[in-house]
Amino acid sequence: MAMVFFYPPNPDSRFNHTYISNKLKQSLSENLSRFYPWAGWVKDEFYIDCNDKGVPYIEALVEGQLSETIRDPVPKEIHKLYPYQLDDVKDLIVTVQVNFFDCGGVAVTVLISHKVADGFSYLQFVNSWAATTRGDGDIVRPRFGSAALFPPINVAGFKTRTGMVKENIETRRFVFSNSSIAALRAKYSDFVSHPTWVEALSAFLWTRYMAVIKNENLQSRVEPSLPDHFLGNIIRIVMSLPSRNIENESYDVVNPMRDAIKKVNSEYVTKLREGKFPLYEADFGWGTPVWIGSGRRTYRNLVTFVDTSSGDGIEAWVNLKEADTAKLEKDKELLSLVSPSPNAEHLQF
Questions:
Q1: In 3-state terms, what secondary structure has residue 215?
Q2: CA dist 147 to 97, 155, 230, 271, 334, Å?
Q3: How confident is the model at residue 234 (pLDDT cuts 50, 70, 90)?
Q4: Are 317 and 206 in contact (CB under 8 A)?
Q5: Which residues pair with 304 in a beta bridge?
Q6: Do the strands 94-101 and 57-62 form a parallel or antiparallel pair, or are they unpaired?
Q7: Rounded distance, CA 220 to CA 152, Å?
Q8: What's the pTM value of the predicted model, to 2 decimals?
Q9: What is the mean pLDDT of the chain?
């Protein structure tokens, strides 16, 4: 997993390169003492060697303006702010790169291995690091207890790199406003009871590129509820096989998806609701990020949904083969519901 947290230039002269660098390195060390297993390495693919060797911390100088980078983000360009290629991380658990722009803006990139963490655990680490940096005295320690609920099993023969590809994959970002999402939910509600925004948006995208992979977060759905700050990789791939008949989207797309999620619920959880990720809470002491983005993903036919920075819509990051991407970008029905980049509207620095 990798995210890039973009912070605009701060008018306070204290927040210069040297100050930010020193604060981040010191607080990262303190934060790793709480997340102590993550200062080690993954060994033999399936367990952590708590060798306390620390994590790679890299700094980079970026020519240009931060505003130019995020005004209309290009995933391939954002990828240049990563410390490593996603498929080159190997046994490392956490890697960090802090990018300093000419304008004074900062982009903090954090990579965390999906072998040991899910999305909520990722954000726990980042938000805890941010709180440490700004001097927050009330930081709750993570709880490493997921193995008690999900005991390790024999996964001999499983390849963690299965599905990863490097060639001929393009990532595109499509922004959907709340009004567009409401229109899609209304469209499907005539045939499906109370479709969620995930179901509606996924169904719509399926009809546009004929492939859906749904990644359900389970941390917010376990009954009894998991304790706050529960750490680990509690993730389940929910896969549906909708019909290729896109004339009846509600029956042939939304229903198979809902049925797939229900099967996971009956086996793993007892309730279904839409979870929210605390994406925009990482305040290191110089404000919250103006935008959080991601580079090119290494999986084909993958869609990732995240909140917009303003909270009034959803960004869909779509990974497809280059040829399919070219077709999708010209699809009139898709483009009729896609909004301009909200970043361009909210850049005030």
A1: strand
A2: 30, 15, 11, 21, 42
A3: very low
A4: no
A5: 317
A6: parallel
A7: 21
A8: 0.79
A9: 78
